[in-house]
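User: Can you write out an input/output pair for a complex, sequences first and structure second?

Assistant: Here is one pair. Inputs:
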Amino acid sequence: MAQQDLAQQDLAQRNATQDGARRSGWSWWYLLFIVQFVGALWPPFYNMAEPTFIGLPFFYWFQLAWVIVGAILTAIVYFATDD
Amino acid sequence: MADINWTALIIFVVLFAFITWLGFAAAHWRKGDLDQLHEWGLGGRRFGTVITWFLVGGDLYTAYTFIAVPALAFGAGAVAFFAVPYTIVIYPILFLVFPRMWNVCRKHNYITPADFVRGRFGNRWLALAVAITGLVATMPYIALQLVGLQVVIGALGVPSSGYVGDLPLIIAFIILAAFTYSSGLRAPASIAVVKDTLIYITAFAAVIVVPLQLGGFDKIFAAVPPAKLLLAVPGAHTTGSYSYYATLALGSALALFLYPHSMTGILSASSGHAIRRNAALLPGYSFMLGLLALVGFFAIGAGVANRPEFAAGFKQFGTNFAVPALYLHTFPSWFVGFAFAAIGIGALVPAAIMSIAAANLYTRNIHREFINPNPTDRQEAQIAKLVSLVVKFGALIFIVFVPTQFAIYLQLLGGILIIQTLPSVMLGVYTRWFDDWALLIGWAVGTAAGTAMFVVVNSPNYPLTIGGYTFPGYAALYTVVLNLVIAVVLTPVFNALRGGLNPADATVAADYHA
């Protein structure tokens, strides 16, 4: 019986914390991710050979550069939404 | 492949012996009671940021990836680079969905995606659909890991024709099966650290040494035929290769984390924090995958396809031989042995995790749900260990007796199948709005339509035509949209029919947070 009360109390507490804004599960920072979706998934942006970089056609170095940009954006979101 | 390359072979065998020892020793690492399923199958959910990075990286970037992506670049050119945008968009998905998934799974001791769906939507048939989809998609994937192993063993000059030729493969798989059985997820986790270190060295060596030998990137890309250098510009009334490239990248990214083995790797992390941190750190692997795709072009630049010493290899393994040939051509034997061991060990890590994931699925979502609802912890772990053996030997038999091409065909279909679990698994993490039967019907229609599209054009690239305009694209993405539309349309219908008597949700909102 006592155990059941405790469980109920725990449940009520957990439901209460969820009202806090931090706990809502959404942050506007997540919109930053859209940048990488658009930049990486729109081939007309990068389907060209020029300008080259250290001999790599644009198509290749541009997409490789997006890996780094994507990692930086993800890191920004991580630090911005970190509790 | 006339002669055995002894120096390379000895180094290959020594490194294999080392990881075999490591796989067995791993049972004692962060020791837990291996008679409990979450200890055997998830390493006790105790891996921190660093080990998770190696484990998930080793899990997602498989040996087959390392062979097949450069092979595609070598054979088909620019389209192979879809792997780069693909790895760019997987991490936001990881970041948004999986910390929540980790929290709820830990709270309720869920081990598989189907466990979660069972709890969230309270429908055993929907959970069964998720479990069977996972099993069907995973099996050919395990078999394909063997292809990577087969290619490097063949390239070492070990005779690989006839059933005697399959002996090295069989030995490697017995080793794999034995240490997975005894150590569970701890084995691939510890081996992943070694494997990824070897793979990084292998990849960077090629990216630095080959351009130096061939006189720079400009010389290499000058040798690439213009048709392979860029995507073909779409003609009139079609989005051509552009839409295929983008949908293939996006669809593959969405499918990736729905594979049961991805979930196994992610759930073994020690916290949602470790997962979020990894979303920012894992692009290290993406960069390497991009470099490896370039290696396919290096193989063109080095002209390996025209060298008589590699003719037999290309004849047997097709473009999959491009990477091994380039290494044989460029590096001294000792480094070839090192590089091939990296690829070979790279096959064992994901194969082990996949077989553990498949075993968890069977044990939890088929055996416990439909056969023995109240196993003891010990029985449950024992069943999973046995099933992991069955799964691996199934894959081995498959690859020995069935043409490789068929395994590749099934693996491509597997991507189309697994993405159909997206509405219940990924969206389920955020909302319980969907009706369980609506999800199940959406899944069934998506699965049927995706399979039909794939069979009709014999390729995942389906030319969707609307009003005289063609949108070639990845069938997985098209059919998961259909699946979702059906689930959205049918949910209010079922809600009305059931009058609010939907099955209970075993989870509450707070379960999804730390």
